[in-house]
Specification:
The structure holds two protein chains of two kinds. Chain A is α/β, with parallel strands linked by helices. Chain A contains four helices and four strands. In chain A, helix 1 (22-28) links the parallel strand 1 (7-12) and strand 2. Chain A is globular, with a radius of gyration of 14 Å. Chain B has four domains: 23-111 and 451-507, Fumarate Reductase Iron-sulfur Protein, Chain B, domain 2; 122-218 and 377-439, FAD/NAD(P)-binding domain, CATH 3.50.50.60; 221-373, 3-Layer(bba) Sandwich (FAD/NAD(P)-binding domain); 518-596, Alpha-Beta Plaits (2-Layer Sandwich), CATH 3.30.70.3270. Chain B contains 18 helices and 23 strands. A five-stranded parallel beta sheet of chain B has the order 4-3-2-5-18. A five-stranded parallel beta sheet of chain B has the order 9-16-10-11-12. In chain B, helix 6 links the parallel strand 2 (122-126) and strand 3. In chain B, helix 3 (47-64) packs across helix 5, helix 5 packs across helix 14 (489-498) and helix 10 (270-281) packs parallel to helix 11 (306-314). Chain B is globular and about 100 Å long. The chains are: A alpha/beta, B alpha/beta. Chains A and B meet through strand 2, helix 2 and helix 3 of A and helix 17 and helix 18 of B.
Chain lengths: 132, 597
C-alpha cells in the first residue's frame, strides 16, 4: 500500500459538473481537466499526460446521441481504440486509459469514478515512463 | 459631375448574410430558440434548484417577446422547419416554451414594472391585439409615450378567440396585463378609432405624432356560392364562427348550449375546427363541412392543421370534405337544412375559383349553422380615413408598413394580411422600427432587409425519436380545460437535449451566457503547416471547412459563421496546423501537467 496512482480525468463540460463551480471541482480533484467536448482531445494530449507523470487517464464523455457537438464522444472512442493498441504495442496496459459515457450535471459521481479507477489501476503499479 | 448618395437603394447593407438555425429563421420574430433550448437542456433536474434557471430563461425570452407565455400554448411555427423534422420528429419547441411559461406566469404576475423613462413623442396604437401591443411594447422600450386605443373592453384582440382548452385564461390575462404594466403603456378601452368623433385627425390634433393601426379583422366573411351570397344567412340558428367564439370566451354561452342539437360548421381552416370542437364541448352533434379535400398535399387540400383534424375526429366530429353550401333551407324563421353540392375544384392557377357538380348534392340537417369561412377588416373605417388606394386596396408599404396616403400612419397585423399570431407580432415590431425612423427623419428602408441563411442538419449516426405528446382521451376532455399535457421538468430537459443546436454559435452563445465557456474561440489555420489534405473537412460536423487553392498550394479555410469552435478539426489535423485562438484548454492542461510532477 501507500502507492496511489496519479489519474488525470478529462470531463466534458456539457455533460459533467456544469451545475457546480468549476474551481470547486478542481479543488476536490486536482487532476480534473474539464474540456468543451471530449472530442477535442487528441492522442497527443493523452500521451503528454502520461509523459508528465500520469499513471492513468479517465475520460468522462456524454452519452451516445447526446454530444452537444454531434459526435465528439464517438470520435474520442475511436481514437481510444487506436491509442490503446499503440500503448499495448509499447508494453503499456491499455486499461490505463478509459472512457465513460454518462451524464452527471452536478458532478456528484466524478470523485467516486476517479477513486474506482485509481483502485483498479493500483495493481498495475506506476507507469514505466521509459516505455513511452 | 455626379453626386453620390448613400441612402435608399444605394445603401450598403450591413450584415448582408447571417446564418441562423432553421427554426429561428422560420420564426417571424427570430426568437432565440436555440439558445433557450440549450439553456433548458442544462437545467438541474431538481425542481427547486431549476426554478431560478427557468425564470432566467423566461426573463431572457420576455425581453424580446413579452407574449411568449401565450406562444408556448398556441404557436409552433418553428417546428415546421426544424432540421430534426425528417429525422425522428421536430423538437417540441412549443411545449418547451409552455414549460417555461407555466413557471413564469406566477412570477410575471408579481414582477415589478420597469419604470421606463419616456422622453420621446406620443404615439397612438389603434387596436390592442398582438400586433398593436408588440408595437406599443417596443416603442415604450425605445422611450416613446404610447397610448393604446382598444375598441372593446379588454386587450388581446383575436387571442380571445382561441378556445380555453388550448390556452388557459390565466395565461392570457396575466400575459396581457403584465405587458401593459411592465412598460407603462396607457390604454383607452371602448374607443373605436375611425368611428364617430374618434378620427385619425383628432389623434393628430391631440398630439400623437404617429399612429399604428392594427384593428384586426372584426368582420366575418359571409357565405357565398358562385360569388353571390347564399340566401338564408339571416335565419335563426345561423351564426358566424368569430362571433360564436367571441361570445364563448366572454362566458356568454352556457355549458350545454347545444345539447341535443345538430351543429353544422362550414369551413376548413383552423378557426372552423376551433368552432367545431367548441360546439362539441357545448354538447352539439357536430359536423364540419369543408370545401377542400382530405388530401392535404393537394392544392385543394384542407388548410387546417393535422392535429386539429385528428383532435376533432377523436372527439366524434364528423368531417364532410369537398362540399360547398348552395342553399340554406329554413322552416319558418329557423334554419333546417343545407344543400351541399360536391366541390370538384377549389383553386385554379389564378386563385380561389370553386367549381361544383350540381348533379351530386347532399342535404344535411342541422339546428345550428356556424359559418367560419374567414374574416376581414372593417373597410368602412379604412375608407373613411383615406387609407385605401383607387382600387379599394389598403395603401401600405409591405416592408415599412407606412401608409402611402398618410406618412404618419402605419398599418399592420391581420388587418394588412391575415396570418399567425407571431406574424402580427412581427408587424408590430416592424411598425415600431418604422415609427422611430419616421419620427427621427431617418431613411425608412436602409438596412432592413436582412438575408438569413439556414444551417443544414449536422451529420451524426444517431438521431433520437420525438417524445409522445399526451392528450387526455376524447371521452374525458369534453370540457374547456387543457387537453394536452405539458412537459415535466425531466421531460423538458430530455427534449431540449434532443435539439441538435444546429445553428451557429454566434446566434446562440447559451454556453457563454452561463459561463460554461468563456468565449467562442475562433479557429486559426497556420497556413505554412496546412497541406490541404482535407481531413479537417470531413472532421467538421457543420460543413464549415472548405479547401481553397492559394498561390502556395491548397489550404483549408473555416467559415467563421458556421464554426462552433468545438475543436474537432484541431484534434483531427495531423500536422498541427489548426488551433483555437486563445484556447483556454492549453492553460488548463499546463496546470494539470504541473500538478502531476
Amino acid at each position: 500500500m501507500g502507492y496511489e496512482p496519479k489519474l488525470v480525468c478529462f470531463s466534458c463540460k456539457f455533460g459533467w459538473g456544469y451545475l457546480k463551480d468549476p474551481n470547486a471541482l478542481r479543488e476536490e480533484a486536482a487532476l480534473l481537466t474539464p474540456v468543451e467536448c471530449s472530442g477535442r482531445l487528441d492522442a497527443l494530449h493523452l500521451l503528454k499526460a502520461f509523459k508528465e507523470g500520469a499513471d492513468g487517464i479517465l475520460i468522462l464523455a456524454c452519452e451516445e446521441g447526446h454530444c452537444h457537438f454531434q459526435e465528439g464522444n464517438f470520435r474520442t472512442l475511436k481514437m481510444l481504440y487506436l491509442l490503446r493498441d499503440v500503448l499495448q504495442a509499447h508494453g503499456i496496459d491499455g486499461e490505463r486509459v478509459r472512457i465513460e459515457f454518462s451524464r452527471d450535471p452536478e458532478g456528484r459521481t466524478i470523485l467516486d469514478r476517479i477513486t474506482q479507477m485509481k483502485a483498479s489501476l493500483s495493481g498495475l503499479g506506476p507507469l514505466d515512463r521509459a516505455l513511452l | 459631375m455626379w453626386n453620390t448618395v448613400s441612402k435608399g437603394a444605394a445603401a450598403v447593407e450591413p450584415a448582408v448574410k447571417q446564418y441562423l438555425p432553421p427554426c429561428q429563421e422560420q420564426c417571424p420574430i427570430n426568437e432565440d430558440i436555440q439558445r433557450t433550448n440549450v439553456l433548458i437542456s442544462l437545467l438541474p433536474e431538481d425542481a427547486e434548484k431549476a426554478a431560478p434557471g427557468i425564470l432566467q430563461i423566461g426573463d431572457y425570452l420576455y425581453e424580446k417577446n413579452p407574449l411568449f407565455p401565450v406562444c408556448g400554448y398556441v404557436c409552433g411555427l418553428c417546428e415546421l422547419e426544424c432540421n430534426y423534422h425528417a429525422k425522428g420528429g421536430a423538437i417540441k419547441r412549443r411545449l418547451l416554451k409552455r414549460f417555461i411559461s407555466d413557471t413564469y406566469i406566477p412570477y410575471l404576475e408579481t414582477r415589478d414594472e420597469w419604470g421606463l423613462i419616456k422622453h420621446k413623442e406620443n404615439v397612438a396604437i389603434v387596436g390592442g391585439g398582438p400586433a398593436g401591443l408588440m408595437a406599443g411594447y417596443d416603442l415604450s422600450l425605445r422611450g416613446y409615450r404610447v397610448t393604446v386605443f382598444e375598441a372593446s373592453g379588454r386587450l388581446g384582440g383575436a387571442l380571445w378567440l382561441i378556445p380555453r382548452y388550448r390556452l388557459p385564461e390565466r395565461v392570457l390575462t396575466s400575459t396581457l396585463e403584465a405587458m401593459v404594466r411592465m412598460v407603462g403603456m396607457d390604454v383607452k378601452y371602448d374607443t373605436r378609432i375611425g368611428q364617430g368623433k374618434w378620427t385619425l385627425d383628432r389623434l393628430q390634433n391631440e398630439g400623437y405624432k404617429a399612429v399604428f393601426i392594427a384593428q384586426g379583422t372584426p368582420t366575418p366573411r359571409t357565405l357565398t356560392f358562385d360569388r353571390d351570397p347564399v340566401e338564408g344567412q339571416d335565419l335563426s340558428g345561423v351564426m358566424y364562427g368569430h362571433t360564436f367564439l367571441y361570445e364563448v370566451s366572454h362566458g356568454n354561452i352556457r355549458p350545454d348550449y347545444f345539447k341535443g342539437k345538430k351543429v353544422l360548421v362550414i369551413g376548413g381552416g383552423n378557426v372552423a375546427f376551433d368552432v367545431a370542437r367548441t360546439a362539441r364541448r357545448l354538447g352539439g352533434e357536430t359536423t364540419v363541412v369543408a370545401l377542400e379535400c382530405e388530401d392535404k398535399s393537394s392544392r385543394d387540400g384542407i388548410p387546417a392543421d393535422v392535429e386539429e383534424i385528428r383532435g376533432a375526429w377523436e372527439e366524434g366530429i364528423r368531417i364532410v370534405y369537398s362540399r360547398g353550401v348552395q342553399r340554406i333551407i329554413g322552416e319558418g324563421e329557423r334554419m333546417k337544412q343545407i344543400v351541399c353540392p360536391r366541390c370538384l375544384q377549389v383553386y385554379d392557377d389564378h386563385g380561389f375559383h370553386p367549381v361544383f357538380d350540381l348533379a351530386d348534392t347532399v342535404a344535411l340537417d342541422g339546428d345550428v349553422l356556424i359559418v367560419t369561412v374567414g374574416q376581414g377588416p372593417d373597410w368602412t373605417a379604412l375608407r373613411s380615413e383615406g387609407l385605401v388606394d383607387a382600387q379599394g386596396r389598403l395603401a401600405v408599404d409591405s416592408l415599412t408598413l407606412q401608409s402611402r396616403n398618410k406618412d404618419w400612419v402605419f398599418v399592420g397585423g391581420d388587418l394588412r394580411k391575415i396570418g399567425f399570431m407571431v406574424e402580427a407580432m412581427h408587424d408590430g415590431l416592424a411598425a415600431a422600427e418604422s415609427i422611430e425612423r419616421h419620427l427621427q427623419g431617418r431613411d425608412m428602408t436602409e438596412g432592413r432587409k436582412r438575408l438569413f441563411e439556414v444551417q443544414d442538419i449536422p451529420l451524426r449516426r444517431h438521431y433520437l425519436s420525438e417524445p409522445e405528446v399526451i392528450w387526455i382521451p376524447p371521452e374525458k376532455r369534453m370540457h374547456f380545460q387543457l387537453f394536452e399535457r405539458g412537459f415535466t421538468l425531466r421531460e423538458a430537459i430530455e427534449e431540449a437535449r434532443r435539439c441538435l443546436a444546429c445553428g451557429p454559435c454566434i446566434a446562440c452563445k447559451a454556453c457563454v451566457s452561463i459561463g460554461l465557456r468563456e468565449s467562442l474561440n475562433p479557429v486559426e489555420v497556420l497556413t505554412d503547416r496546412c497541406c490541404g489534405c482535407g481531413i479537417c473537412v470531413s472532421a467538421c460536423f457543420y460543413s464549415a471547412i472548405q479547401l481553397k487553392d492559394v498561390e502556395m498550394g491548397r489550404i483549408s479555410v473555416t467559415d467563421a459563421f458556421k464554426c462552433k469552435s468545438c475543436g474537432m478539426c484541431v484534434a483531427a489535423c495531423p500536422s498541427g496546423a489548426r488551433m483555437l485562438k486563445d484556447d483556454p484548454l492549453e492553460g488548463l492542461l499546463q496546470t494539470t501537467y504541473g500538478r502531476l510532477s
